[in-house]
Here is the input.
Amino acid sequence: MKLSTRMVVVLTSIGLLSGSFLATVGHLTKERIALNKQREIEEAIIQVVPGTVSSQRLYEERDLSVYGGKNEEGNLVGFAIHASGIGFQDKITLMLGTNTSLERTNRLAILDQKETPGLGAKITDRDSFLKYWENRDCSGTISLRKPAVSAAEKLLPSEINTITGATISSEAVLSIVNSSLEQVREIIKEGKLSSEAQDVN
Amino acid sequence: MSTKAAGQEFIKGLWDENPVFRQLLGLCPTLAVTGAVINGLAMGLATTFVLIFSSLVVSSIKKLIPSQVRIASYIVIIATFVTVADRFLAAFFPPISKSLGPYIPLIVVNCIILGRQEAYSSKNTVGRSLMDALGMSAGFVLALLILSAIREILGAGTFFGYQVMGAWFEPWIIMILPPGAFITLGILLALALQIERRTKSRK
Here is the structure.
């Protein structure tokens, strides 16, 4: 066989073999990978909307999804807003739980972040950051208290303590929350949430 | 191949030709993922998987591949196994897959792997190539474990996620940041060189 033909034949067959092998592997793992992602989201909804036993997606777009959490009787107990935006180093993905009227927050969970370990990464820490997000007034925009105050009672109902030394990460989380809340209000106003949720509103 | 020769192929990867400490290959993952022992170990094992299977395939079809297209062929073979490792981790170990992020797909360009195909598997028998791959992988895993253990203990006060330092210990955050990786690797390389010199002068 001529050398050039041999080169083509060898590379093509390696490519074909490798492609079909990968197609098999991809097929075998696809379901499980999708399941893992779904489970991660379900667990986060249960965490941020207490009392949830089942949840369903009511709205979805790039970087923003809205889930409804339902209790055992099938009544809506709150919304879980899954949103992401730019942090200090990379994208931050979070899940915010609110009540059914979008006026009070339940809890906040950070699902994915690559902030500086020891500083910005404190956004995942309950005691330094996440606890301030519990039961806040979110009917307007939420703001940051800077410098942070040691007594949580001193904060206004719509204020969150800033993490000392990680203002940018704190602000990043804040802006993701504020802009996604605004978007969700807009979506509800336009009647784009799926029908069941609108009944509750 | 005698057992002694096979053992020799394996042992050389651990120290004499250790990919990280002696050949300074594969430093990108070595620096990037060694902030925690679990990540270092996962990266080491994923690389081991890719190296072993690539060496097996390359050494068994070496005569079929024209030398003009050998690098392209090796890369396709390596990329195949890397993708398998990536999908496997995403399916069965999602937290590890998430924390290693893009570094698993980047094993494709880890020069230890392509280097071993070019320097060894393309010239040696399947058996020898397997021993060589095992030895090189063991040396790489060893280096990642040493580096990540030092960085995690000093940088977070934990080992494999378990608290090992007392409450008095203030974590050196710099150790889990990129500079900590360079500092630790630099000190370890100096130590490796020193040990090498000592043993040589004794001979």
